[in-house]
């Protein structure tokens, strides 16, 4: 038997049904790989007992016949998802010791389908970051390196642990969440596939909230077919999330034909940034050529408000975060500061939040507080909501003109070194999301697909943006791009 | 718009985050960097544009106003840093 950890979801599904492998065997192989991979700091709470119990149950279900696709598939779960009885900390000190008494809707759906949970995955604190360096668990590490250079690189963020775990074969797939690029940027940095579905596709219930109008869950996988399979299992209407869409979930995998003849692919001129590295330019040009060769029509388009997307995001996301994170007050769950003689409830709140929140989270909560405060609400928050309307309209206009999908780079660079951005102004870090954040503001589906490597051998990804609710068509275009690019590189094991 | 030390202190207070006095100047500078970046939004013509309320056009669902859940006091209190006699316990609020 080949190395089971290297299996993809679709392969494992088929092998499980044929009886070539059991879920227990798959799970045991992955658990032992995880034990040997602490250097990557991808898993922050390992759950081997739960995994083996779930695997045994899945094997019995498969034997009985009629098991769903995800039955017996071992996955890693981002720490942002509340999992019953298992630490769920959003990588924050303020949720230290918190073990939810309930299960998020997305993990409930996965577990009901027979999915196996290997453990909880590292991330940026409250999903605020682009390098996994704001985690209370320490940095997650990218399994990729620059040639023979042993400098540690970021797996991206915020779903950095998810990306590292999938790329290093420490799970067959992982859940991620994406508020401004947190699935797509780490996927691009680690040579894997990640899709953020349309806002409302996945229930947000039980996922620790960051910016509720932007947050969406999605899968991070080894290829596009796996993304289709796992996404289908995660989606669906949920009475517990009033923004979840009451729409049927199609069989996404069945839509992967690879035939994109006649599809119109838009190339937005505003994504051609000044000073963009030549490697990214070339990656993009190559992607355009691949889709053209596959029979798509390439069309130059304009999304005129693109340059305002990041500043809009850095008003709206902190504003929503300041409101969502008000619940961490040291009363109902998590950390409470030790109080001095005479301290009252206000001191309890202030000390608890100062000790519990990391620097970036504090900064964003305070920026959000400022833009929502009396006298600035109109100038900042309301103005940002108006610009958001214009950003969404840019996309509506090009889709109305017949564009089926939009092709852009996923990130402005390959993975950078851990610590390299420490001294930089926070705005420099925010620029990582320049190509992905528009998609969250407009509520659209977006997918990152690895299509090449840079001069140092690091993976690079392209992003495809689709029409709302048309993840199936988007996945099919991504599938055609994946077939043409033929990206098969894997990181060399050093950990 | 420039944020000074006093404004930074006021924002920290509103956010209920304790910031030591000597950390305030650096915090004010960080705010100024971020707000400088956000300032670009002032150049966009937003006359007559509706502020976005919901990214997908939807009517929020309604349901019957009835009890659907409850009777789980133990579970609700399970994660509390300090729970006594079936309540969350906090420092004295009223003198």
Automatic annotation (TrEMBL), chain A:
Active site: residue positions: 78 (charge relay system), 158 (charge relay system), 182 (acyl-ester intermediate)
Family, similarity comment: Belongs to the amidase family. GatA subfamily.
Lineage of the species this protein comes from: Bacteria, Pseudomonadati, Pseudomonadota, Alphaproteobacteria, Rhodobacterales
EC number: 6.3.5.7
Any one GO MF annotation of this record: ATP binding
UniProt name for this protein: Glutamyl-tRNA(Gln) amidotransferase subunit A
Keyword list, A-Z: ATP-binding, Ligase, Nucleotide-binding, Protein biosynthesis, Transferase
Pfam families according to UniProt: Amidase
Start and end residues of each Amidase domain: 26-475
Catalytic activity: L-glutamyl-tRNA(Gln) + L-glutamine + ATP + H2O = L-glutaminyl-tRNA(Gln) + L-glutamate + ADP + phosphate + H(+)
The protein's assembly and partners: Heterotrimer of A, B and C subunits.
Residues spanning the membrane: none
Gene: gatA_1
Record function comment: Allows the formation of correctly charged Gln-tRNA(Gln) through the transamidation of misacylated Glu-tRNA(Gln) in organisms which lack glutaminyl-tRNA synthetase. The reaction takes place in the presence of glutamine and ATP through an activated gamma-phospho-Glu-tRNA(Gln).
GO CC term, one of those recorded: glutamyl-tRNA(Gln) amidotransferase complex
Origin: domain of life: Bacteria
Biological process, per Gene Ontology: translation
Annotated organism of origin: Pseudoprimorskyibacter insulae
Cited Gene3D superfamilies: Amidase signature (AS) domain
Automatic annotation (TrEMBL), chain B:
Gene Ontology BP annotations: glutaminyl-tRNAGln biosynthesis via transamidation; regulation of translational fidelity; translation
NCBIfam families: gatC (TIGR00135)
GO molecular-function terms, A-Z: asparaginyl-tRNA synthase (glutamine-hydrolyzing) activity; ATP binding; glutaminyl-tRNA synthase (glutamine-hydrolyzing) activity; transferase activity
Physiological role: Allows the formation of correctly charged Asn-tRNA(Asn) or Gln-tRNA(Gln) through the transamidation of misacylated Asp-tRNA(Asn) or Glu-tRNA(Gln) in organisms which lack either or both of asparaginyl-tRNA or glutaminyl-tRNA synthetases. The reaction takes place in the presence of glutamine and ATP through an activated phospho-Asp-tRNA(Asn) or phospho-Glu-tRNA(Gln).
Pfam families linked to this entry: GatC
HAMAP family registered for this protein in UniProt: GatC
EC top class, as a word: ligase
Coiled coil: none
Entry keyword annotation includes Nucleotide-binding: yes
Superkingdom in the source lineage: Bacteria
Family that this chain belongs to: Belongs to the GatC family.
Keywords carried by this UniProt record: ATP-binding, Ligase, Nucleotide-binding, Protein biosynthesis, Transferase
Reactions the enzyme catalyzes: L-glutamyl-tRNA(Gln) + L-glutamine + ATP + H2O = L-glutaminyl-tRNA(Gln) + L-glutamate + ADP + phosphate + H(+); L-aspartyl-tRNA(Asn) + L-glutamine + ATP + H2O = L-asparaginyl-tRNA(Asn) + L-glutamate + ADP + phosphate + 2 H(+)
Assembly with partners or alone: Heterotrimer of A, B and C subunits.
InterPro entries with a match to the protein in the record: Asp/Glu-ADT_sf_sub_c, GatC
Listed name of the protein: Aspartyl/glutamyl-tRNA(Asn/Gln) amidotransferase subunit C
EC number annotated for this UniProt entry: 6.3.5.-
């Amino acid at each position: 038997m080949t190395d089971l950890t290297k299996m993809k979801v679709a392969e494992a599904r088929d092998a499980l049904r044929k009886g070539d492998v059991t879920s227990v065997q798959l799970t045991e192989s992955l658990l032992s790989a995880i034990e040997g991979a602490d250097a990557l700091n991808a898993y922050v709470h390992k759950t081997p007992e739960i995994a083996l119990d779930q695997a045994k149950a899945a094997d019995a279900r498969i034997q009985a016949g009629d098991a769903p696709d995800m039955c017996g598939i071992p996955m890693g779960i981002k720490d942002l998802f509340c999992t019953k009885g298992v630490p769920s900390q959003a990588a924050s000190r303020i949720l230290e010791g918190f073990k939810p008494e309930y299960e998020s809707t997305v993990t409930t759906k996965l577990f009901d389908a027979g999915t196996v949970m290997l453990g909880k995955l590292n991330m940026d604190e409250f999903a605020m970051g682009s390098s996994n360096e704001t985690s209370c668990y320490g940095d997650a590490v990218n399994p990729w390196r620059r040639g023979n250079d042993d400098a540690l690189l970021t797996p991206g963020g915020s779903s950095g642990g998810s990306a590292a775990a999938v790329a290093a074969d420490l799970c067959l797939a992982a859940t991620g969440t994406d508020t401004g690029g947190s699935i797509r940027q780490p996927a691009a940095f680690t040579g894997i596939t990640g899709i953020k579905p349309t806002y409302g596709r996945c229930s947000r219930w039980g996922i620790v909230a960051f910016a509720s109008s932007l947050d969406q869950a999605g899968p991070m996988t080894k290829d596009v077919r796996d993304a289709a399979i796992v996404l289908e299992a995660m989606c669906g209407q949920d009475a517990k999330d009033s923004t979840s869409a009451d729409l049927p979930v199609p069989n996404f995998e069945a839509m992967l034909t690879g035939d994109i003849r006649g599809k119109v692919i838009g190339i937005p001129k505003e994504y051609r940034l000044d000073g963009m590295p030549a490697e990214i330019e070339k990656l993009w040009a190559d992607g355009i050529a691949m889709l053209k060769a596959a029979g798509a029509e390439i069309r130059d388009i304009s999304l005129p408000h693109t340059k305002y997307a990041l500043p809009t995001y850095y008003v709206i996301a902190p504003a929503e975060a300041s409101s969502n994170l008000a619940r961490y007050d040291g009363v109902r769950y998590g950390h409470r500061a030790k109080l001095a003689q005479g301290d009252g409830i206000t001191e309890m709140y202030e000390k608890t939040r100062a000790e519990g929140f990391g620097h970036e989270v504090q900064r964003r909560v305070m920026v959000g507080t400022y833009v929502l405060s009396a006298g600035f609400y109109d100038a900042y928050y309301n103005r940002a909501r108006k610009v958001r309307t214009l950003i969404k309209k840019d996309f509506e206009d090009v889709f109305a003109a017949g564009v089926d999908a939009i092709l852009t780079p996923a990130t402005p660079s390959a993975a950078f070194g851990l610590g390299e951005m420490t001294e930089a102004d926070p705005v420099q870090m925010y620029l990582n999301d320049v190509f992905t954040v528009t998609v969250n503001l407009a509520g659209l589906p977006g997918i990152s697909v690895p299509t090449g490597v840079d001069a140092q051998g690091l993976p690079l990804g392209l992003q495809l943006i689709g029409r709302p609710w048309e993840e199936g068509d988007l996945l099919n275009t991504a599938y055609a791009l994946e077939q043409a690019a033929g990206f098969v590189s894997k990181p060399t094991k050093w950990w | 718009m420039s944020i000074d030390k006093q404004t930074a202190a006021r924002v920290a207070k509103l956010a209920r985050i304790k910031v030591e006095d000597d950390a305030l100047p650096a915090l004010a500078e960080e705010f100024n960097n971020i707000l400088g970046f956000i300032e670009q939004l002032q150049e966009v013509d937003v006359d007559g544009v509706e502020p976005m309320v919901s990214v997908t056009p939807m009517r929020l669902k309604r349901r019957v106003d009835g009890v659907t859940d409850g009777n789980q006091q133990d579970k609700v209190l399970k994660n509390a840093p300090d729970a006594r006699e079936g309540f969350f316990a906090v420092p004295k609020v009223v003198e």
